[in-house]
């Protein structure tokens, strides 16, 4: 019927439209926390990681708001993934179909998994629900990708429990999202069997998901080939950011981050609640953040000393062996594997929110490991790391936007060229790019 027609012309979804439940035509769109569509099936365990559980036309028709001259349809795809406890879970991605397809190669089709820093501990802040409202400043990025003729997959990488900043779960959600999208095109009904050329892109909170996906690819999803990864404003280690932003305009990130870990790990939730001061229990100031979007969180906690909500202050967060275990295993980049695809890393030197030294350290580690791997003829990192002399963390997202799309274009079209660091290579350079000179605070 109608949907299967749209789906098959769009991305060869025909077989899925027939075999997967579609919603009633006129059901009103509901926030994820209230929408039965966003639930795990009883037989979740029987789905392999990355397999599609349900597909529906995006009930919010976000594609129309982005521009029907760029995208002809958007779909929500719900798929099996694996959470931070290595247990089966699910996630949702919103897939945009480009109007013009990649022309660079008749044999391949570009696809970018774009990770938005939604930075919230509530599932109702997921991009599949908030893209055209809270998160519509990302439309220009999505449009820039669609203009290249690429499919764009916008992942709700925090998953149904909104596990903000829990890197392993987020990386899995990105990789399984890629499996789901590429699986969707492999039905026999498809007119062609083009190979996908895949790029990842994420800034700040989005880079956590993209970067962990790059690290985990070789062990978790080795069949997924990634042509290039553009990541900026890396907030690693997460604990360093939680230290840096207290009493700053972005202090709310601490509330968001702590709830993200509590959402993922019940033992963290019990611990945090047990450490709240009587005053914080009475005011409910800490608990209130759990259901807020990041815009609400920034508005609620500017310049607040978030650690004053805890009996032992900052020590309750940074001197706790329990939390340290999670910061080390889930919130630190560079410990889950060496990314082996070309990566473009960008960062403002004056980034106060996620200090540049920590990204310097990560890149140095990858470069050293990459050289060792290349010496063993086992591939290795291929990184261009640009440190920008202009602006702070927030400005950098805009300042290097074009550079990120240009990198993805070259990577996806096989045109990185001789100037690109070869296998095991690494180039670190200071640049002066962009016009937004705003400091962070
Ligand atoms: C799409 O339409 C918008 C205005 O609605 C215009 O600004 C943009 O340039 C168009 N893009 C393309 C690729 O035609
Ligand atoms: C959400 O978290 C709870 C508590 O850890 C867990 O029991 C549940 O399975 C999680 N849900 C999903 C879909 O991962
Ligand atoms: C984003 O949404 C707001 C209102 O929710 C609207 O005023 C604004 O024009 C939208 N921006 C874009 C780029 O669609
Ligand atoms: C969080 O809960 C409060 C109180 O119930 C409500 O006013 C607010 O809109 C909720 N926020 C979100 C994002 O659901
Ligand atoms: C927290 O609670 C106190 C009252 O105990 C109030 O004065 C304060 O403004 C509240 N807000 C935040 C964000 O801490
Ligand atoms: C880049 O800038 C830093 C200051 O942040 C300086 O210490 C370093 O020497 C510069 N590196 C290069 C390659 O110019």
UniProtKB/TrEMBL annotation:
Keywords: Hydrolase, Signal
Any one Gene Ontology molecular-function term assigned to this protein's record: triacylglycerol lipase activity
Record GO biological process: lipid catabolic process
Pfam family, one: LIP
InterPro entries cross-referenced by the UniProt entry: AB_hydrolase_fold, Lipase_secreted
Keyword Protease attributed: no
Signal peptide: 1-19
PANTHER family: LIP-DOMAIN-CONTAINING PROTEIN-RELATED, PTHR34853
Similarity annotation: Belongs to the AB hydrolase superfamily. Lipase family.
Protein name in UniProt: Secretory lipase
